[in-house]
Design brief:
Strand order of the largest sheet: 2-1-5-6-7
Order of helices and strands: HEHEHHEEHHEHHHEHEEEHHH
Strand content: 5-15%
Oligomer: single chain
Radius of gyration: 24 Å
Helix content: 40-55%
Number of helices: 13
Length: 307
Amino acid sequence: MNNFNSNSKKRTLNNSTKLILRLPKTIKKNNISARFYDNDEHNINVFRQNFPNITSILVDDTTPNKLISNIIDNVNKYSSENAFKLLYCMNNQFFNGINNKFINIYAKYVYDFMGESIMPCVGITDDHINNIIEWSYNNNVDKYIFFDWDRTITVVEGIIIPKLPSTYSTYGIDIEDVLNYLLGGNERKENLKNMFNILGNNNVKIYIITNNDSALKINDNKKSKRINFINLIKQLIPTFTDNNLICSFNHKTVNLSGKLKSNKAKALNQNRHRDNLPNNVIHYFRQSTNKNNRNNNNNRNNNNNNI
């Protein structure tokens, strides 16, 4: 009888051990710090709901970019589509008004192709950059940072990317011109480059989560823009790799207004198998703090009282 009990205890212990091994490795709250920046309030709300341990920060997209802010009053002289095409594409960093000639060939392509129908904004500001740099110097934690691309890192909506085997140089476009245009001029570009270099030196793991379809993975590389997109990003973030670019284009949910929107939380979950973003890290991002749990319980109690 004693032998039977002893064996039962051993079997129970072994089974428990196996179950424990299947669980993600526990991460203490103070061992990881993570941030997410996006100009879309929907994406911020989705991240806050799904990843309470990531600090999600909304980026302003309502303030005009400084390259057009001094002449924003002229917008009413044109249709909304042509206004920003003229104001941004033809500002003096990209266009020589004396010679009536584009000095940034990418700006000319944007002007000829579609222009800027959505107002170029400020994106991540100098205040954001300084705050991110200060945050990155905390060496006591593993640091992860996630950025949206359009109107967050960049100041414009969308990007023209050639399909392979073509590259920007195929069309006589300097890749620095592309960055200057997308990032709101040379000064902001250099500030962002400096920030990303500091983040790299401080071992911050950097990701871009974008709804831009240029980030889609396509089996036939000749039809893909993703490689050219990554090569462009690498001019800004030298340590950037394919694993750091997460596309949310195919991950959709319906928002509160009934519109189909990208769900970047789903996209991040889809990429949880990546070696540089381990499953236990995603598990930590999704854990609710005690405060969140209390708030959820209070909300449930309030809802019950209203029934």
